[in-house]
Amino acid sequence: MTRSETVITKMEHVEESLKDTLYRVEVIEKKLKTKLLTTENRERLENELEEVKEVLRRNEKKLQSLRKENSKSFIVAACLVFVCFLFYGLYLMIFENI
């Protein structure tokens, strides 16, 4: 697929990834709460939990940057709309009096 993704689409993908990662963190934490784990399994789960939390932190940072980019795009669009209305108003003021 060569079509570039929009900011909104990227945000949706990152949010979906965040949901999956949060679910994975919950599952691992529930497994760690059981007392029937061997030390080897417990260490493996703790390491996996740290890795998953790191992925979670990266995705949260990526989502923040995408939201900033989206708000910048909105500000540019709002400014363009304002300028268009301004020019239209000036046009009406100047040429309606003739």
TrEMBL record:
One of its GO terms (cellular component) is membrane. This is Coiled-coil domain-containing protein 167. InterPro entries: CC167. Its main location: membrane. It is a single-pass membrane protein. Keywords: Coiled coil, Membrane, Transmembrane, Transmembrane helix. Residues 35-69 form a coiled coil. It holds the Pfam family CCDC-167. It is found in: Membrane. The chain crosses the membrane at residues 74-94. The lineage of its organism: Eukaryota, Metazoa, Ecdysozoa, Arthropoda, Hexapoda. The keyword Transmembrane helix applies.
